[in-house]
Specification:
The protein is mainly α. It is 70% helix and 0% strand.
């Protein structure tokens, strides 16, 4: 008898679950076509930010994505929302390239080389102009993705150092700064053939990273800590 009462009690409590829980269960998952539209918008925005800078008209992004303006604004009510999503996308994709190079290349320097060229293809240099203005650099999502990227790239550099192939006076910050400088686009410029030089110049840079060093570098190696201190000083 007690067992029956207990079962009834449990059933009653479930049936009278808090409205918040019931509401959470009723939240529909985004439809597949809605997710595809969002991905198309982010992809189009990434391409156009590279070509024309982060102030490109949102209507033009919607046109390239093949969606209506209402769809774009429904997903990203403010320009900053779209910039935020593009930055996260670029960082996440770049981290994935680092993980792939680490997992698939037995030679540590070849893994570093592969990642460097892959990061250029992901347009990581385009992040710099996107981070200007009112962009929230301290957003938790951004900080978490940045930490994941830094950890992955630090691992590549550490492996290359341990193998003896990477010169000892170079740190991970040197690689990240060079990637930013050598792959940063020139929005709206007449340099239409800029892309053909990126991998060529990156290869020259990578040749200069190999040990034994052929020269003494001026200054000191750029570490992640020194880059953070510089950013905090400029904030």
């Amino acid at each position: 008898m007690n067992s029956t009462a207990g079962t009834a009690s449990v059933g009653t409590s479930v049936g009278n679950a808090p409205s918040g829980t019931a509401a959470a269960r009723r939240v529909p998952r985004p439809r597949a076509d809605a997710l595809r539209n969002r991905e198309r918008i982010v992809t189009a925005a990434r391409e156009m930010f590279v070509e024309f800078g982060p102030q490109v008209p949102l209507d033009e992004i919607a046109r390239r994505a093949g969606v209506g303006n209402a769809t774009l604004y429904r997903n990203f009510p403010e320009r900053s929302d779209l910039v935020h999503e593009v930055v996260l996308s670029v960082m996440s994709r770049t981290t994935d390239r680092a993980d792939e190079a680490t997992a698939e290349e037995a030679d540590a320097f070849e893994a570093l080389r592969r990642f460097t060229h892959a990061a250029a293809d992901e347009r990581i240099g385009a992040l710099c102009p996107m981070l200007d203005g009112t962009f929230d650099k301290d957003h938790p999502e951004l900080l978490a993705e940045r930490a994941r990227l830094e950890e992955a790239v630090q691992g590549l550099v550490d492996r290359a150092h341990a193998s003896g192939r990477l010169r000892a006076d170079v740190a991970v910050g040197d690689l990240l700064v060079a990637l930013s400088q050598l792959t940063r686009p020139l929005p709206g410029s007449a340099c239409l053939d800029f892309d053909q030089f990126v991998h060529r110049h990156l290869q020259l840079f990578l040749d200069g990273l190999q040990a034994p060093a052929r020269s003494v570098l001026p200054g000191s190696a750029a570490t992640l800590e020194s880059l953070r201190r510089r950013d905090e000083g400029e904030a």
